[in-house]
Specification:
It is found in: Mitochondrion. There is one protein chain. It is built from 40 helices and 30 strands. The two termini are 28 Å apart. It is globular. The longest helix is centred in the last third of the chain and has 23 residues, at 872-894. The strands form five sheets. Strands 1, 2, 3, 4, 5, 6, 7, 8, 9 and 12 form a ten-stranded mixed beta sheet that branches. With 1034 residues, the chain is of the alpha+beta class. Among the domains are: 64-320, Cytochrome Bc1 Complex, Chain A, domain 1 (2-Layer Sandwich); 604-838, Metalloenzyme, LuxS/M16 peptidase-like (Cytochrome Bc1 Complex, Chain A, domain 1), CATH 3.30.830.10; 843-1032, Cytochrome Bc1 Complex, Chain A, domain 1. The structure holds zinc ion.
């Protein structure tokens, strides 16, 4: 998923239906964390982490004037937006009418994107397959898959392309201007002059192919990257639900179709259709160009005009406009089936329901903003009406993923849904929904509740993200796509002020909106979903029926062509190729390490305290790390649950509703998370900790510390009904998303076979955790649990086992320290327990977690060397090299997996993985044959290739960090800025010979400690196929 800034986060709580080119996130919040290998649950969260910190200095750029023309673009509108200290320039190309929106902001992380309004009229996945093909080579860059090649020739902080319900966008971001210009040229050429070759269509879209390529008599199968991708996408039930919700609530135009493609429809698409669609929808007149940051705009204008727009005639793009959905006069009900998720809830509880109501037009900005706030008031947290009426009675697993206000389409919608409930409760849900609305109309809202939500929104405006430009792009794309006023939509403070005024002047302001949009709205869809044990079987039958029809329609001639195409495609995939046409950064461009502010570590009341002064936009960030290595095994396994519920239970002084309101009014939240922190020096030991994170406006810092103190001292687990509900919601939530992040679970699964620390990580955050929690809930003894959770808190919340990091602005530091000191005085000191646990390593083994999905996720892990070992950077470069040169061509291009790669974690675990993979044992064989492949492709390990792999690593090392997160590597892992610089220098200096030497050392002989893991359907003769004994868990 996309990382989104919090102010807009509000706007997109409803899950977006997006099909990205690169589903596997190639970035994470901290450069170091990426190396560590976030656990799946962390990775989910990291997409929402508010990293980073452009230093914002108000700066008005007066180079341009309204009404003037620059390189063929007429400047139509210039506005300064104080909320984000940016200047917005709206320009329009005089020849083609293409709009170019430029945001000038003093932020080094520059963004560029080309967006098209793409409105499919069937579910063949046309716009999605086109999105893949556009990046497969173009006029000026006629190489195979320049997109993937550029991943390692650039230091982009983000690179992707994605297909939404009615738009396709091609965004990237980078802090390096040479890189920016390189990528800009490639992206522009890709979208306006793609080669769209037939063979690429076969590879990326779909094709019939002989099972044995060399045997023209062998049976025919269907293959294709998007074909497999979509099979995988629909193995995630929450995705199926969200897609169906969209299709059914807006059925009459383009939204009635699946823009990503329905696997059973994809094979209806022809190459000719695709080329025609490109001509029409990728015409400059149907394009919107976005640029953001501090780089010179005129260079962009000149390039776009000279190379791509000038000379192109303007066309009327009204063909791609989307009319409003005609409103229904009667509510509708739709029921769908889903696959039975064997990792999910019990069969009879594995149902979902949602009510979706069509709201306002997206271009009505103020209305849309207010409906957004209203839906937060109704849905979010224990003070909201729906939470009280639907969640607290505890007859489900909590809100489902679709819940929220969704503003990704022409008509926006409001959705409330539940997961993991019984069919018998469907009716109850509908009744409660109506009762809740009527009660809200009668009772209205507490002023304090409204204010807490608006305050939180204002705080989030100040909270800086290093990916601000990307967030801005993603969150305005839908509005822009419908010609909405995106510039005004950025004036959030004004919209808040205007809402406050409306609320003051009209006492029933929100109640009237509820009447209009919720109570008296007949455009209302109730969607229900239940598991069907034969779901997969039915799909397989439909798939083979489709295949049969396809084959039946073939004649001798077309059969022959299929056979020849198969061979041709294989030949082109295996052919050596010349990538000289692609630009690449040089060592000079990347030699300087990023500059971070200085870190000071002081001892305050015996607590080690890391202080970082950095411009934070009047916010103070605090992290408290509690070492929990002293907990018993039974206690340790409950720490994830502990972290998830402790801030939801209130305290002995304030009930959970009051406490939630206080937190929301004064802070950005108080969150708890557990960490397994490996010793990056020796890989032989590790520490367990719980980290409490919070932040607040400087003026609210005394309250923030007060609330932390209240929670740490007076936490309570006494309310057993509430605890029971939170546990059930927790279990439902951890089993969501396994299929979409399966590669992370497979790697955690493989790592769990290497050592006890890996096993513990899996029990705390992997598939084992889901299993553990399910069993735990079945045998739950509430009184015991309450006692254990209380004990955990009593044992860990003390300053003897605590470390703290504070990030704030220089002028505020004295006050921050003053309040911090007072806070520390209230925290008890206990016996110091700085225990490092010794890691036990296991003998090699293999494990499969059975899942009834049509694709596999494979992982292999072995112990190499940790972060501070001199070979670590070499292995990290090698991992990038293997990913780009070996796994991507073989496992993705030839074998049809959606993704594959290798990485090394800071604890020294080297991992291989595949993503949405039609094969399992074949992929594991590919992992196994790495050494042989490296041996027979020694010529590929040259200076340029090694440098490209280094760039791939630098993308992670140098990625921007939020002001609140600067210094986190030192804080968590004791990796000082000096160590980081040494590591980076060492990495840049690695030679080809060193790399070859590392291959001999680490890959020649099978490692002593390794594990293999598959997540996916049952495999016949797995043991004989692989020559290993597999442990199978279902
Ligand atoms: Zn895709």
């Amino acid at each position: 998923m996309i990382s989104k800034s919090k102010w807009l986060n509000l706007a997109v709580r409803g899950r977006r239906i997006l099909y990205p080119r690169l589903a596997i996130p190639n970035k994470s919040a901290s450069s170091f964390r990426d190396a560590t290998g976030a656990t799946p649950s962390e990775a989910e969260k990291s997409s929402n982490i508010q990293v980073s910190a452009p230093q914002v200095i108000p700066q008005r750029d007066s180079k341009y004037a309204e009404g003037k023309v620059y390189h063929g673009f007429k400047c139509e509108r210039i506005e300064y937006v104080s909320d984000f200290e940016l200047t917005s320039y709206t320009l329009r190309h005089e020849g083609t009418g293409t709009e170019l929106w430029h945001i000038h902001r003093n932020d080094p992380n520059n963004v560029f994107s080309i967006n098209f309004r793409t409105t499919p009229f069937d579910s063949t996945g046309l716009p999605h397959i086109l999105e893949h093909l556009a990046l497969c080579g173009s006029k000026n860059y006629p190489v195979r898959d320049p997109f993937f090649k550029m991943l390692n020739r650039s230091v982009a902080t983000f690179m992707n392309a994605m297909t939404g319900p009615d738009y396709t966008l091609y965004p990237f971001s980078t802090m390096n201007e040479v890189d920016f210009r390189n990528l800009q040229r490639i992206y522009l050429d890709a979208v306006f002059r793609p080669n769209l070759k037939y063979l690429d269509f076969l590879q990326e879209g779909w094709r019939l192919e002989n099972k044995d390529l060399k045997d023209r008599k062998s049976e025919l199968v269907i293959k294709g990257v998007v074909y497999n991708e979509m099979k995988g996408a629909f193995s995630e039930n929450s995705q199926v639900f969200g897609q169906n919700l969209l299709n059914n609530v807006l059925p009459d135009h383009t939204y009635g179709h699946i823009s990503g493609g329905n696997p059973l429809e994809i094979p209806k698409l022809t190459h000719t259709d695709l080329v025609e669609f490109h001509k029409k929808y990728y015409h400059p007149s149907n394009a919107r160009i976005f640029s953001y940051g501090s780089f010179d705009l005129s260079k962009t204008l000149e390039l776009v005009d000279k190379e791509y727009l000038s000379g192109t005639p303007c066309i009327d793009n009204s063909y791609s406009q989307i009319p409003p959905q005609p409103r229904w006069t009667q509510p509708r009900n739709v029921h769908i089936s889903s696959r039975l998720d064997n990792m999910g809830a019990a069969y009879d509880r594995q149902n979902q329901i949602a009510i979706a109501l069509l709201m306002s037009d997206i271009t009505n900005i103020q209305e849309s903003f207010e409906l957004n706030v209203l839906s937060e008031l109704l849905i979010r947290g224990p003070n909201s009406a729906f939470y009280k009426s639907l969640i607290e009675p505890n007859f489900s697993g909590g809100y489902n993923q679709s819940t929220g206000y969704s503003a990704d389409t022409k008509d926006t919608s409001f959705i409330v849904g539940l997961q993991d409930l019984r069919v018998e409760d469907f009716k109850k849900f509908g009744e409660l929904f109506d009762q809740t609305i009527h009660k809200a109309i009668e009772e209205g809202f507490q002023h304090q509740h409204v204010e807490s939500i608006l305050n939180n929104l204002e705080l989030s405006l100040k909270h800086q993200s290093p990916h601000f430009g990307n967030s801005l792009l993603f969150n305005t794309t839908a509005l822009w796509n419908h010609d909405g006023d995106v510039v005004s939509s950025l004036r959030v403070s004004e919209m808040i002020a205007s809402l406050r005024k409306n609320l003051r002047n009209d006492k029933t302001y929100f109640q009237d909106k509820i009447k209009k949009y919720l109570a008296n709205n007949t455009h209302r869809l109730t969607l229900t979903m239940s598991p069907d044990e034969s779901y997969e079987e039915k799909f397989k039958v439909a798939e083979s029926e489709m295949l049969k029809q396809k084959v039946k329609a073939l004649n001798k001639e077309t059969m022959k062509q299929i056979y020849n195409d198969g061979l041709k495609l294989e030949e082109s995939q295996k052919a050596a190729e010349n990538t000289d046409a692609l630009p690449c950064l040089t060592l000079k461009d990347v030699s300087d390490p990023p500059k971070w502010p200085k870190l000071n570590v002081e001892t305050v009341q015996n607590v080690s305290t890391q202080i970082c002064t950095v411009p934070t936009n009047e916010i103070t960030y605090v992290k408290c790390l509690f070492n929990i290595t002293g907990l018993s095994q039974a206690e340790t396994t409950l720490v994830p649950l502990f972290c998830s519920v402790i801030n939801e239970m209130g305290t002995s002084k304030y009930n959970f509703r009051e406490f939630d309101k206080m937190i929301l009014s004064k802070t950005g939240g108080i969150d708890f998370k557990f960490n397994v922190v490996e010793n990056v020096q020796d890989a032989q030991s590790y520490q367990l900790s719980v980290m409490m994170t919070t932040y607040a406006l400087d003026k609210n810092v005394p309250d923030m510390f007060g609330l932390c103190q209240e929670l740490l001292q007076n936490f309570t687990f006494a309310d057993s009904d509430r605890l029971q509900m939170l546990i059930e919601n927790y279990i439902s939530n951890i089993s969501v998303g396994v299929a979409s992040s399966g590669h992370l679970y497979a790697m955690v699964g493989a790592t769990s076979l290497v050592s006890d620390a890996g096993k513990l990580r899996s029990v705390l955050a992997g598939v084992d955790h889901i299993e553990f929690m399910k069993t735990f809930a079945q045998e739950l003894n509430m009184a015991n649990l309450q006692e254990t959770l209380k004990k955990i808190g009593q044992k860990i919340f003390n300053k003897s086992n605590m470390r703290v990091a504070i990030n704030c602005s220089e002028p505020y530091l004295p006050s921050a320290l003053n309040h911090y000191n007072k806070f520390l005085e209230t925290i008890p000191a206990l016996e110091k327990k700085d225990v490092q646990r010794k890691i036990q390593f296991f003998d090699p083994s293999c494990q499969q977690y059975l899942m009834n999905i049509p694709v596999n996720y494979c992982g292999k892990a072995f112990l190499a060397v940790p972060y501070l070992h001199q070979d670590h950077p070499t292995l990290r470069v090698l991992a990038k090299f293997i990913s780009a040169k070996y796994l991507l061509p073989v496992v993705r291009e030839q074998n049809g997996a959606y993704g594959a790669g290798a990485k090394i974690n800071s604890d020294g675990i080297f991992c291989f993985y595949s993503y949405r993979d039609p094969h399992s044992t074949k992929t594991l064989d590919a992992f196994e044959q790495t050494y042989e492949w490296l041996g027979s492709n020694a010529d590929k390990i040259n200076q340029q290739a090694v440098f490209e792999a280094k760039l791939g690593v630098l993308q992670q090392l140098d990625s921007p960090i939020a002001p609140g997160n600067i210094g986190i590597d030192n804080f968590l892992y004791k990796v000082s800025p000096e160590m980081f610089v040494n590591y980076r220098t060492r990495l840049l200096n690695i030679t080809v010979d060193e790399l070859k030497c590392a291959i001999e050392t680490y890959f020649k002989n099978p490692p002593k400690h390794y594990g293999k893991c598959i997540l996916g359907p049952a495999i016949e003769d797995l043991d004989t196929q692989t020559g290993h004994k597999w442990k199978i868990s279902s």
